[in-house]
């Protein structure tokens, strides 16, 4: 047989094998999807997401008002900036996605009243809240359809719920890194400055402390919720259990607290240095994302990819998020080495620029807390990957995607979330 004939036979066999894998995967997806239901775990996650968002927002608005009343205009301006700018960015992305959904023939057309409701929520800068509420409504509809024995409707509403949840989680992720992160650094910086200069005591210390805690919890939960929603949206991935979500939340909480404290300590000594470090970190990460062409379903053009890279680069100041599927072990190792060096540098600047005799509790307490939170973050991360990480994607699907280079035939990812292995 000629070489050309061999090539034709091999190609035909490979094509038949790919089609067989694709059909089998579609059948498995249907079984998997029909077996998934909206339950207490999903309801709790949605309510926690809404609650942490609102509480974080309320504390920021209250402190902004108090800064204005007390004549602290610099703090007022910074707090307002970190409230309005992130909300506008989230609103822009959310509106863009709503417009994209109009062109999707598989989705029902939204009524005029629904568009009015969307516009009202977007104008109020509550873009994620509306999507979480929509996701809850779709989940409840899937429950009613399941009780009536309507399997197709149950799968349809469950799919809509998952898609809205992943959209809301991604918006929440943007909002937390653009809003909660700078708010936490700002208020912690003020608390450290007041502790260094007791003569500048104010009545806002309690509110500022609670604002920092709420911001840290909001960031950690947004990361956890996002990783959970990505796995629920991907039908070819194992789902994240509530135990895994708890350990992952502790990991992100400790890691975020360590980074926020290190940056606040550096800002307390040399604010310009802290700004320079953040700017360099952001530029390097944004350039890496932009030059790496890490395309996701979030963006439909190169211009949106560049904007998306800039926004995601800000997230890398506090945490790493893999933009696409693939091994992350060495990436995490490199990222945490960079964080360790930056945190250590901030501690050195803090220790050299301060005297332990003036305020030993503040001097040693901040050092212990910074080191302890960083170590605990690493410990929780190792516990998660050792005992609570889902098994991931099957080998068969991985090979089929690699061979065909047509992932849309063999797998589909819900929403606009990234595709990664967390």
TrEMBL record:
UniProt keywords (A-Z) are: Cell membrane, Membrane, Transmembrane, Transmembrane helix
Q: Spell out where the chain crosses the membrane.
A: 40-63, 75-95, 115-133, 170-195, 207-226, 272-291, 303-321, 333-353, 362-385
List the subcellular locations: Cell membrane; Membrane
Annotated Gene Ontology cellular components are: plasma membrane
Q: How does it sit in the membrane?
A: Multi-pass membrane protein
Annotated InterPro entries:
XK-rel (IPR018629), XK-related_scramblase (IPR050895)
Q: Where primarily located?
A: membrane
Tagged with keyword Oxidoreductase:
no
Which domain of life does the UniProt lineage start with? Answer: Eukaryota
Q: What is one GO biological process annotated to this record?
A: phosphatidylserine exposure on apoptotic cell surface
- Family (UniProt): Belongs to the XK family.
- PANTHER family for the chain: XK-RELATED PROTEIN (PTHR16024)
What this protein is called in its record is: XK-related protein
Record organism? Megalurothrips usitatus (bean blossom thrips)
Organism taxonomic ancestry: Eukaryota, Metazoa, Ecdysozoa, Arthropoda, Hexapoda
